[in-house]
Amino acid sequence: MSILDSKIPSGSLKDKWKNHKDHMNLVAPNNRDKIDVIVVGTGLAGGSAAATLAEQGYNVKVFCYQDSPRRAHSIAAQGGINAAKNYQGDGDSIYRLFYDTIKGGDYRSREANVYRLAEVSANIIDQCVSQGVPFGRDYGGQLDNRSFGGVQVKRTFYAKGQTGQQLLLGAYSALSRQIGKGRVKLCNRHEMMDLVLVDGKARGIIARNLVTGEIERHSAHAVVIASGGYGNVYYLSTNAMGSNVSASWKIHKKGAYFANPCFVQIHPTCIPVHGTNQSKLTLMSESLRNSGRIWVPKNIEDAAAVREGKLKAQDIAPENRDYFLERRYPAFGNLVPRDVASRAAKERCDAGFGIENNDTQEGVYLDFHTEIIKKGHEAVIEKNIHNATEQQVYNLGKAWIEEKYGNLFEMYEKITDDNPYETPMKIYPAVHYTMGGVWVDYNLQSTIPGCFVVGEANFSDHGANRLGASALMQGLADGYFVLPYTIANYLAADISTGKIPTDQPSFDQAENDVKEKINFFVNNEGTHSVDYFHKKLGLVMWNKVGMARDAEGLQTAINEIEEIKKDFWTNVRVPGTADGMNPELEKAGRVADFLELGQLMAKDALERNESCGGHFRTEYSTQEGEAKRDDENYKYAACWQYNGTSISEEILHKEELVYENIEVKTRSYK
Predict the structure, then answer these.
(1) Helices vs strands, H then E, count in the chain
(2) Is the distance from CB of 343 to CB of 547 less than 8 angstroms?
(3) Cβ(334)–Cβ(150) under 8 Å?
(4) How far is it, in rounded angstroms, from Cα 85 to Cα 80?
(5) Structural contact between residues 339 and 266, judged by C-beta atoms closer than 8 angstroms
(6) Which strands make up the sheet holding 264-270, listed edge to edge?
(7) Please, are residues 460 and 278 in contact by the beta-carbon 8 Å criterion?
(8) Whole-number Å distance between alpha carbons of 272 and 578
(9) pLDDT above 90: percentage of residues in the chain
(10) Given pLDDT bands bounded at 50, 70 and 90, which one contains residue 1?
(11) What is the pLDDT of residue 274?
């Protein structure tokens, strides 16, 4: 097993990445076609990595379980991508982005990685503009910016409310070019089933063709995992239904440490749950908090009347509204970080002020009326309209909102049948992003030599809470500007290795293990569907490993998941066969991994006796209900090593986090 060495370069923070690149080993252009690389995942991180490596001359195989790389979940990102270009002249800088990210992550991320992320962020925008990504522009034609939670500058570049889609199309165009040149072989409708190690190094994968059911062997000199996060362990989340943890979990069980699994982000602006048959939640972009004000009725009687349908939001006078984020956090207001905004909304709803008529009364308002009127008055002045009527002001303000967020408002109305221009949106926090993931060093390599992990699948940049618009930034930074350098440093030793043969014992064993599990699923005479167990797991996770956690609930969760797991392996029923398309078989393997991961998440949360970012232990909070860190005992990344068949046997390793360039202090947005 490899030693836990983060490989952070020496020297000053601002020079680490430059000096590191200057002294890394290289693979000469005429030698790169001797090297094979596998990339698992075609989202922003995987797509950009595969395209860039192929452009450099490596032979790349890229795998996705979707029918097209364009179906990757990165397409769902709405609000924008951060970069420290300071186009607005409002005080932004590389250091400011670095500091905001460290602070937003509640001082639980690695300093060197975060600074590098901020440093290369500006390159991403130039790259994407050259690809034709239609970023929003201001009146003069310059790239426009908006703010996101946890910052006091405008640094977020956007393409209306479909930024992820446009960025993914940019990466996909680069990838398609390499597919056309024959440098990338695309294996769509394929799922990675296991990692193959040869002499301790990652040398290939076992994949299942999801159309034919065929089990395939694929070899390479290095394997890159870019398969996203694990939010679907909660069943209900903003993730695509197919998003899963299996690729990351498979390499974890082969020796890759899994870091900070309990760090899960709850997004504050999602459409509330509307019934027990719902299978997915819908995110409303954080960019809406630029223009919307979050509130609940100030009087509990009004909240009850709203839930009963006796009172509408517009009937509640402004003085009878509690704009609770503005009240509690005046310096940042509605743009506090996601974890802070989510807990504040939960507190109001738990106190009885929720406005949604569901079993749990979970819902608050996101209201745009103030912004509509404000922008309307600005437009009246700009257009030199004298004695404008209230309706003219409203119409002009509405037009401004529509230009900025129109597709988001249309989406909300189609889902809820409410017009958000006329009545406030109803929102509530939901599982969105996972900051935890496979542990990687500064080179993005896991504890398995030759196995690299990029994007949301790794743990490296966001600490205990990710700032909005930083996921797209990290994915493209890793794929375009970090991995192509660091993987070359590793591959330089493989120039004379030759092709990795697949007819060797390591591939035999891995394939047999995969087939054995598949045969179990299709032949087990169970009584319950895969979704039955996934929903049971999700309820335990949300109720006991969700926004608020305590020791008793976490221990109960571990025990309850163990019972669900035993029931799953006894009573799961997978209809159909293994020799063709079988979505239930796909789900069975993924839920099996979620069950094990869920236990580790609860175990990790139980071990961390503090509150930080998205990890909120109710026993460790201030009198005002804010997170209370314990820097003396828990300023580390918790790195778990798989050690057998039981999660209780996982071994904890600690990567101590050292901050030499910032002051670690209590996080405050007041």
Answers:
(1) 18, 19
(2) yes
(3) no
(4) 14
(5) yes
(6) 264-270, 425-434, 364-367, 293-297, 321-322
(7) no
(8) 37
(9) 95
(10) very low
(11) 84
Q: What is the CA radius of gyration of the chain?
A: 25
At 180-239, the pLDDT tens digits run 999 999 999 999 999 999 999 999 999 999 999 999 999 999 999 999 999 999 999 999
Strands in 451-453's sheet, in edge-to-edge order, are: 184-188, 59-64, 36-40, 222-225, 451-453
CA 2 and chain centroid, separation: 27
**DSSP states along 122-140:** HHHHHHHHHHT----B-TT
Give the phi and the psi of residue 319 in degrees, each rounded to 5.
-70, -15
Q: Which two tokens stand for residue 247?
A: 């690729």
Quick check: 502 pLDDT over 50?
A: yes
Using CA atoms, how far apart are residues 188 and 39, in angstroms rounded to an integer? 12
- Mean pLDDT across the stretch 68-86? 95
Tell me how crowded residue 413 is: count the other CB atoms within 10 A of its CB. Answer: 15
Helices 530-544 and 551-571 meet at what angle, rounded to 10?
180
pTM summary value: 0.97
Whether the pLDDT of residue 146 is over 50: the answer is yes
Q: Which two tokens stand for residue 392?
A: 């003219």
- The C-alpha atoms of residue 187 and residue 207 are separated, in whole angstroms, by 10
- Degrees, nearest 5: CA angle 72-73-76: 125
583-607 helix and 551-571 helix, angle to the nearest 10 degrees? 160
Give me the torsion for CA of 631, 636, 642, 645, rounded to 10°. Answer: 10
Structure tokens at 513: 């293990």
Scanning the structure block, which residue is given the tokens 């300023």?
A: 635
Active site residue 338: yes
C-alpha pair distances (Å), 527 with each of 412, 517, 595: 38, 18, 18
Instruction: Check residue 200 and give left, alpha or beta (phi > 0: left; psi -120 to 50: alpha).
Output: left
What pLDDT, in 10s, does the model give residues 23-46? Answer: 999 999 999 999 999 999 999 999
Q: Give residue-wise pLDDT tens across range 384-436.
A: 999 999 999 999 999 999 999 999 999 999 999 999 999 999 999 999 999 99
- CA nearest 62: which of 168, 172, 165? 172
pLDDT tens track for 262-321: 999 999 999 999 877 888 999 999 999 999 999 999 999 999 999 999 999 999 999 999
Catalytic residue among 110, 116, 183, 338: 338
Instruction: Report whether pLDDT(148) > 70.
Output: yes
- Reading the block at residue 108, the tokens are 């639980």
| Complete DSSP assignment for 379-417 | HHHHTT-SS--HHHHHHHHHHHHHHHHHHHHHHHHHHHS
Band of the pLDDT at 2, cuts 50, 70, 90?
A: very low
Say which residue the tokens 């163990």 belong to: 562
DSSP 163-220: HHHHHHHHHHHHHHHHHHHTSEEEEETEEEEEEEEETTEEEEEEEEETTT--EEEEE-
- Full set of structural domains in the chain with CATH: 270-430 (3.90.700.10), 524-635 (1.20.58.100)
Using alpha carbons, select from 206, 207, 213, 196 the residue that is nearest to residue 521: 213
CA angle 394, 397, 400 (to 5 degrees): 150
